Amino acid sequence: MSSDNPALLSLEEASTRLLSPGSPFELTEEEVLGETMQVYKNRAKSLRELLQASAAHGDKDYMVFGDGRRWTYADHLADVASVARAFQENYGIGKGDHVAILAANAPEWILSYWATVSLGGVVISMNGWWQGDEIQYGLDLSKPKLLLVDERRKERLAEMERAPEMPVVSFEQDFEAIRTFAPGAALPDTPIEEDDPCLLLFTSGTTGRPKGALVSHRTLVGFTMSSFFIGARRAMTEPPAGEPGATLAPFPLFHLSGSMGSTTATLAGGGTSVWPMGRFDPAKIIQLSLDENITSWSGATTHVFRLIDHPDIEKLDTGRFTSVGVGGSASTPELLRTVAEKFPQLAGSVGSGYGSSETGGLVSYANNAMLKNAENCVGPPLPTVEIRIVDDEGKDLPSGDAGRVCVRSPLVMLEYLNNPKANEENFLPGRWVDTGDLGRLIDGKLHIESRMRDMIIRGGENIYPAEIENRIELHPDVAEVAVHGVDDRELGQRVKAVVVPNPGAAPTEEAIRDFCAESLAYFKVPEFVEIRTEPLPRNATGKVMKHVLEGLGENTFVEE
Question: What is d(CA 95, CA 198) in angstroms, rounded to the nearest whole number?
């Protein structure tokens, strides 16, 4: 028990109480896809069940957008039912059908998401920053029956090698007729099973092409339950916060933080998400916070720093805030200090979760004390989650030894869509998924030693160097290239390319960046380009030693 506040419980006491028989988070064992696992006993069995239950929140705002549009829970439920009917009757969307969404954050995105999953369909959440080649790849992989776009992304379809073979619906031009198609319609009654797929999240792959992590209704319901568990445990172990208001939702809807967190978990909890529109603008978001009674900020490290550093933050009564959360990138000691300075009441409450699309978004959670003790600590596994640390042969390692982090839980993805090779490489027997991260378990808490393989995390965006390297290698003046991340206070990391020219060639930094921009999303274009004459450092197997390029080691390999 805490000596400062006898009413507070220890983490272990709170967890025991929350998971006890009869509690909302009571656990039981069931078979999940052929394996016995712990599951939440008192869970919804589909996303449609969560949606139906949201009717209880009536006239409370569910989603508010920066352009002034807002939906109450009642309005949202009615519009989703109408959109679902239109999808069903006009486009033949039914159970198992894929509906792709290629758009910036907008109300139409969320209405389409809920309508599709209510029909038993699968939302293909395409990255809104993709260019023509990337869009073509995503459509070829997922084979949607319907493509929903905003006008800006619709223009990019002309850049594709082939025109889309499915109907294309514009949010600006076509969606109002869909939203008002069937006033008073009921939600679909298509039978939905827990392990039916509902969402495809694109995640970077070692080949440089995104992989599609297919997740189920069970995944998203489990994610909401674990999110609520974290909140309930915080309430029992930390001093009480003020009266909660709305929550900032800055993440793209095509990211799990946007679709699973700000969209799904918010609805399940009866909360209000406020969605800024357009580029991230700290001044506009601070004004939104004032106008919409936002008391909870969530975002990548870059979002939080930009908000806190902006002079307009002085307009806010920061003492009213109930939480500041970080997702999409690792928490840092500097971030903890900065939040504590601006939000003194939250000095001991900033935590950080760990997860990925493949693992269903939530694996573990570290509270503030854990982060202060070890910045690479991501906490103990959450309920229903099992963690193993294994060597390269898949054998379990002793506590404290570093190895591959493997996870099993009901939240884990069904598979990588249409990618048997990736499934074989990333799944271990028993539905264990290899995260690709290097970590160790110390006193039951997971510590991440290195990021997923070579991944760069820029402003919450996952970037694999291989995709950028593959592009730069096509430049006629380039002999070899290596891409890595450069640490950055605001964005977490920025992209750097180290280029070795062909003999007699003299490519410029600008030429390399322009070449990348022709086919890559803007956030993948290297911000730093180093032209060097000496060959890239390589080991005995010929692999580029990126830690040498990053200044984290020496090239001790001598070719003889």
Answer: 10
Q: What is the pTM of this model?
A: 0.85
Confidence of residue 389 (pLDDT cuts 50, 70, 90): very high
Query: What pLDDT is recorded for position 240?
Result: 82
Q: What is the rounded CA–CA span in Å between residue 504 and residue 542?
A: 24
Place of tokens 């390589």: 538
Fold for domain 47-217?
Rossmann fold (3.40.50)
Q: Would you say 498 and 549 are in contact if contact means Cβ atoms under 8 Å apart?
A: yes
Specify the pairing of strand 403-408 against strand 386-390.
antiparallel
- What DSSP string describes 438-459? EEEEETTEEEEEE-STT-EEET
> 158 Cβ partners below 8 Å, 6+ apart?
132
Alpha-carbon dihedral angle through residues 505, 508, 513, 516, given to the nearest 10 degrees: -10
CA-to-CA distance for 142 and 2, rounded, in angstroms? 52
CA distance 244 to 307: 19
Spans of all domains in the chain: 11-40, 47-217, 456-549
Overall CATH class of domain 456-549? alpha beta
What pLDDT does residue 2 have? 42
Distance CA 171, CA 103 (A): 9
- pLDDT score recorded for residue 300: 76
In angstroms, how far is CA 380 from the centroid of its own chain? 20
* Relative orientation angle of helices 171-179 and 73-91, to the nearest 10 degrees: 100
Token pair 């001093």 in the structure block, residue:
239
Q: What share of the chain is helix, strand, coil (3-state, %, to 5)?
A: 35, 25, 40
Residue 147's closest CA among 181, 170, 177, 120? 170
Structure tokens at 435: 């995260």
The SS3 call for residue 462 is strand
pLDDT tens sequence across 269-297: 999 999 999 888 999 999 999 999 999 99
DSSP 335: H
